[in-house]
Amino acid sequence: MTVRRFRVLATTGTVDGVPAQRGLPARERETAERGARVRDLRGPGAHGPRWLGFAAGDIVVVSGLPGGGKSTLIKRAAPGGGIDSQDARERWERRMPAALPYAVYRPLVRAAHYWGLWRTLRSGASAVVHDCGTQSWVRGLLAGAARRRGRALHLLLLDSGAEEALAGQAARGRRVSAYAFARHQGAVGRLLREAEAGRPPAGCASAVLLDRASASRVARIVFH
To answer: What's the whole-number average pLDDT of the chain?
Structure first.
């Protein structure tokens, strides 16, 4: 009689509905998951999922152009509203005189945002984090925090055109300078080129590409 032995894989979550399997050697696991490491949900007729699932304790970073829909997606879909620098800015704006330029207290806003982010990372909780895309050290920090607790960093990249993003800025009544917008375009363009080449950006275990239509369908980001 032939006895067959099977390796049991521990399924710890899903990325866009695809099981994230652990238990295989690193090289075999990379080969098994390569097809799911970059998911492109953009394009005419593309229908994005209603939810995106990740393993408990993982970190999801949301990047894209200013006005491209990052904060809207995070507030709608992330548990507890996620960690968004826009929230810190709005809290400080309510405290400050209306005539005081934002540039004056911007360092305080950033300090408050990163303090809240550090506390969450220290706790080991799952997190959805807003990322402007221009500061690669932030993704490096998040990737390092995920690795230290045996978890992973995932990228949700919103691919909105410049006109869409500028219209989004106008709708919220807050525009970034032409210089800052150009920096964001360069940074997001680099992330897109890496993902479209079939590899997630450095430090990321996976990347999901969304346009405005597919992003609007995502109702929940869940951690299993």
So the answer is: 80
Provide CB contacts within 8 A for 44, sequence distance 6+.
Answer: none
CA 210, distance to chain mean position in Å, is 11
10-223 to CATH, choices 3.40.109.10, 3.40.50.300, 3.30.450.40, 3.90.1150.10: 3.40.50.300
pLDDT at 104 over 60: yes
Confidence class for position 162, pLDDT limits 50, 70, 90: confident
**Mean pLDDT (whole number) for 115-141:** 85
